[in-house]
Every structure is written in structure tokens, then in C-alpha cells.
């Protein structure tokens, strides 16, 4: 092979260098000289988002779409789709490029005649490029002037509301900028549900959902801060919402306060809810935060014609009695728009081979279907039934308050187990055979009972064999329930839990709410069963409350697996925590219970995240009311999980307060418990501060002193005095060696603990702030010593001037300035 000359080699190398440099500099850009086809894609500058061809996860067909998805998340998560209604079958024969008129177009067969999607923008004969930004926005803009934007994907969102996307109304173009759900889980075509802004005046705006041109949820009028129907918008530690109204447009927009937080609002194609999700690195999955409307059954016609919705079942949609799913394939992918169809035709319908007379199936305690017809001539329920029976298109009737309502066509918006004042009784028209099957089932049960009694009498001597068979059946049933716990709440009988716990023989602990016992289910891990005491709720109310608590899931909250509501017996089934409660590790001298500083600090952060989730990210703010080491459990890897978080909600605030006081955990009670004022989430913050001091020191807040001192010592006063002296290490657990402790983390933990136990609740931070401080996102200076501690320890010097500084280490931006203690309360209130 001939060698090249020195000059030619240099020229070749320089050309290659320019080519590589040019390629690397334009990895986020589509230009006239660069298009996308096949598996080619472009990535935003910092690698947050990617644009290219993709197939939706789980899709049974090879339908390709051009879209934008998260680049740094291993789970394919599209946030925008271009050709959502026009997929391509062969991306190798398709091309996304800049056309001759300056638009970004998607072509099939690389032909200008095969345009299936275009930006359709007026580009003013500029040299145009398409650039994907790190916000997830795709911009069509002038190559030499990036501020000259002709089109952007943020103006045409699909089902995902990203930070920076506007939902509103353009006054110039008269176009609403809205979100529209996918058709189903694997088809991004426009679906049934939309979210848009509805103007009612110059500044009065609200958000609303639509389905089939029917409004089913509204946020209430924007008050300049939040929507009345969306208290979760006060999630200020995470996101900030803004309303803009100018001469060109009105819109709502939000931003994430932490640039590293991956958050998205998505209209779920199955439920019709706006679901808020955050990406969890530790579990490599999207974590549910909250949803609007709160319950899927509030979504209009979410189960389709003749579908029935129930809060108490998973999934929530099923077909009404005598009906079956019309399109099982669509139903399985979450598209219930086709609803259900009648299994057996009515006698009055053409080609019906029924010999029996049609009848009505009684459905009690239901939300009646939408759009009834009122019959004035029917003066009784019998007359109403006769009027419906005389019309073959009548599918149901209801007689309520001397009024007769009948329904023709599909029944929409039926909800069972509807515990509201407007609940009614619906009489569903069915063919005789469907009604007879119900009677046959009852007779069959009676017959089986009689036959069973006879068989038992005959085979009395074979009782052991029969018991073995019954035990096997029961074992299979318990295995099925154990499997069902992986996906949702399971209802147990008292006998089942009695057997699972071996008649409640192994007690794990107890408290004011009841006792906890260890149990196990066949084929699954161990469980913890809590027997609730003194709970006077009715069964329906208890089930409703439990289903609400059961939907609350977080990596730092003990998961509720099931429940029992049988007569006066109320039991809750939780996941079992093999390492027990935190107090068993903090306050024992055994070497096996020693916790390293790294483990303690991760426990402190985990607990804070769990409480923050209850306060700021759940559909309703849940105040725990009893945070202490005994209620913090540790899994096999010593990850902390907060227990009993749902009991304050189940039992009511007053009851929780009485129990907490009587149980002798006054070392964790905020001052407002004693004064009798209304309790807020800041009471939990105080309790957390006390727990954090115990994690640091390995000592109880109230501890016995030596014989010479004769009495008890309140440890927080000692800790505060050490902090004033600048001796944070003096607070540290003596079992920890100085070499294994991160001094910076220790300082942060000590200072935020003292901020948490301030007497004035307005001076305490939110739990979201606590998490940020422990993670090093927010810096805090030394807090003032609470007055209550000064009264307990008059020898502790009172600081004259302390500061609270809220400065982000990552963004280097001061969010509140540096203020003296006299105004620290207002500073924390603003951030809370």
C-alpha cells in the first residue's frame, strides 16, 4: 500500500478533525444538510432529551412515531409526539428533514409527495434549523439568530405537561393550547380526555377537563396563588406555578425548583386523570405523587357505555350485570370508550330468541347514569317500570322522590358503592335468562348446602380427608391473595388473618392504636398484622378510608397490603420489616445494634422524605401526629419506612391526639399540643426534630441521669448548649468514632434539628426544606434556642443574633437573603 505524503496526510487528518468537530457540534440539530431516518436521532446539549423514531412500549404492532423522550432514563418515556395520528411502518424509508420552504417535515419513501406531518410555519425565507433543547422543547428557528423562533413543540404539547409548557389561550390566533391524552397505552393518537384553560375574565382563569364534550372537573378560579380544588399546588418545595396575562395570550406555566428533579404531569389515557409523577433513581421507576381529579370514578364516562366504576375494586372499571366488554383488546390497553355490550338480547329486540319475559335487576347505592329522561305520567315505581318496559329502547329506570327517570341508549357514568347523598337505586333491564341465572345461582347454593350436609353425614368417618381437602383449598385461596397483594389491596377475613398469625401468637409491638403481630402467607414474605382498637367507623367508611391510604405509596412509607373489616373487627396488613424499629438500634448497647453514621444519615433523610411526601405530595395533607423512633421501621437494608402514617387519618385528629398524649411520648409533642391550638403539619416537623437529635446522639430526649444527679435530663437543652459553643461533635453518639463521621453532614443535621423544634411553628421549616438541607441543597446558619429550652436550662446563653440563610449550593442563587432572627419567621413562612 502506498504511503501518503506528509502534506496530504495532514490535510486528510485536518479534514477528518473538522468533520468530527462539526458532527459533535450539531448532535442536537437538524439542518438542511442533516436529516433523521431509521435509528438516527439527535440529543439535547446536556443530554436530557432525545428526538427520533420510537415504538411505544408494549405495542403489539411495529408502528413508528417521531417523538421526544427522556435520554437519561432507561425506561422509554415519550413526552411529545409529532405524527401521533399517522404512524409509519418503516423508519428506514421515512425521513425527518428541513423542507424547501423551511419547515420540518416527516416524509415517507423520501418523497416530497409523501408528507405525513409538518410544522406548517411561516419561516420568512430564513436559513432554518431544528434544535432540541434540554427542556424537552424542539424549536424551529433561524440558524444565525436563535431568538427568532418560527415554531416550537412546547406550543403543541401532546399528553405531557413539562416545566415550561404553557396551557392557555392565544388571543391573536384564537387557539387554545391544551393537553390531550393518548388513545390508549400504546397508541399516541389523540384520545378522549383534554385539559385546557377556560377564560372567564381578564384575570379570572381556571383549568378544566373534558371528555366527549362533557366537562367533568374544574380547578376553581385562580386566586393568584393556587387553584381552590388543587391544594397540591402549594407543593412549593418542588414546583412553582405562574399565571401570565398579556395582550397576546393568557396561560399557566410551572417550573421545577430543583433543576435535577425530573417531574411530569400526564393525562392518563385510561383514567382520564392528570397524574403527577417524579423519577426515582433508587428504584429506577416513576413514582406517583398525586392526581386530579382525586378519584378515577370522578372522570365522566371513564368506563364507557354500560360500564360501571367502583372505588373499591382494581381495576375500577367493569361491565354492568348482563353485559360484557365490547372490545377486549382495546379494554386491555386502557381504552374503555367502546364500553360494554349486552350478552343476551332483550325479548323485544329483533332476532331475539328469548322465550322469557324481560325483567329488571336492582342495583342499590349507585350514582345514577348521566342524561336521564323524566316521565311525568308515572306516579309510582310500578308505573315507572311499566313505562320503561313498554319501550324496547329503554335500558334502565329509577324512581326517586316521586320522580320517574328512564334511560335510552348507553348508560354513562354509573358508579357502584356510591356513598353520597345523591345515591339512588337503578333498575337495569335484562333478558329473562340473565335474571334467571341469578336465581339459579341462589338455588344452586342452597342445593349444594343440602347435598354437602348429606355427604358430610354419610362420610362422617372421613372427616380428616375432607379437612385436608378444605385446607388445600384454603391454602390455594391464600396463595392467590398473596399474589394479589403485589398489585393492590386485598380484603381478608378475620379467620384468614388469625391463621396467618397462628392465632396472633407472635407480638411485634403495640401502642395506643393497637397491637402488631407477625404473620406469614404461603408463597410470600412475612407480614405484619395490626389489630386496631377503639375504631368506631362503619364498614363502608372504613373501606373507603383504607382504599385511600392504600393508594399512598412511597419508598419511605410502610406499604399497606390488605385489611379486614368484619363486624367490629378492624385489622390492617402491612409489609414486614425484618430489622424492627429504629429505637431498638439507637438505644441499645449491644454491638449488633450499632448504626454507622452513614446509615444514620440516610435514615434521617429517608424519614424526612417520607414525611414530606405525606405533607406535600399526597392528594390530601396527612399529619402523622405520632412520629417517634418506635414508628420508624427498617427493612433488610436498613432503609427507613414510616409506619402508622394512615392511622391519624383513619381515626381522626382528636383521637390521635388523645392517644399520643396518653402513651407517654411527650418528648416528641410540639408545644401547640399542650396549648390546645389547631394542629398543622408543623407538629410533625417538631417531632421529627426531636427524632433527628436522637439519631445523632443515640440518646433519648428524656433520659434518666446518674444517681448523683437524681432525676431526668432533657437532652435537647444539652444539645443546644453544645451547638452554641460550636461543639457539634459533643452531641454525637459516643459509639461513633470521629473518623467515620462526616462533619459537614453532622453540622447540617444539628442545625436543622434545632430549627425543627422551634416553639413558634411559623419558625419551623417545611419537611421539603428539611430534605433539601440534609441533601446539601440549602444552607442554614445556627438557629435561635427555643424559649422552652431556655426556661429548662437558664444557664444556656441566649444568642443575640442568629441568621437563616437559604442559598442553593447548586444554583448559587440566594432565595431569601440573610436576615436576623427577628424576621426569620417570615422568611421560613415564605418558603413553606
How would you describe the shape? globular
Work out the number of β strands. 45
CATH architecture term of the largest domain: Orthogonal Bundle
Give start-end ranges of low-pLDDT stretches.
1-7, 9-25, 653-664, 705-712, 793-832
Strand ordering within the main sheet = 34-38-39-37-36-35
Alpha carbon gyration radius: 32 Å
Please give the domain count.
4
Measured as a percent range, the helix fraction is 25-40%
Q: What is the count of DSSP helices, taking H or I runs of 4+ residues?
A: 18
Main beta-sheet strand count, sense and barrel state: 6 strands, mixed
CATH topology of the largest domain: Transferase(Phosphotransferase), domain 1
What class do helices, strands and sheet pairing give? alpha+beta
Q: Hey, roughly how much beta strand do the residues contain?
A: 25-35%
Mean pLDDT: 78
Summarize the structure.
The protein has 832 residues and is of the alpha+beta class. The chain is 25% helix and 27% strand.
Task: Give the helices and strands, then pairings.
Elements: H1 6-25, E1 29-30, E2 41-43, E3 49-54, E4 65-70, E5 78-81, E6 94-98, E7 104-108, E8 115-118, E9 128-132, E10 138-142, E11 149-152, E12 160-161, E13 167-170, E14 175-177, E15 179-184, E16 187-199, E17 205-211, E18 214-218, E19 239-245, E20 249-256, E21 263-267, E22 274-280, E23 285-292, E24 307-309, E25 317-319, E26 323-325, H2 328-332, E27 340-342, E28 359-366, E29 373-375, H3 381-389, E30 394-400, E31 403-408, E32 414-415, E33 424-430, H4 432-458, H5 463-484, E34 490-491, H6 494-500, E35 507-511, E36 514-520, E37 526-532, H7 539-550, E38 560-566, E39 569-575, H8 583-586, H9 597-617, E40 632-634, E41 640-642, H10 647-651, H11 653-662, H12 671-675, H13 682-697, E42 702-704, E43 712-714, H14 715-724, H15 743-756, H16 767-774, H17 787-792, E44 803-807, E45 814-820, H18 824-831
Parallel strand pairs: 24-32, 34-38
Antiparallel strand pairs: 1-9, 2-3, 3-4, 4-5, 6-7, 7-8, 9-10, 10-11, 12-21, 13-14, 13-20, 15-16, 16-17, 17-18, 19-20, 21-22, 22-23, 24-25, 26-27, 28-33, 29-31, 30-31, 30-33, 35-36, 36-37, 37-39, 38-39, 40-41, 42-43, 44-45
Helix pairs in contact: 9-13, 9-16, 13-15
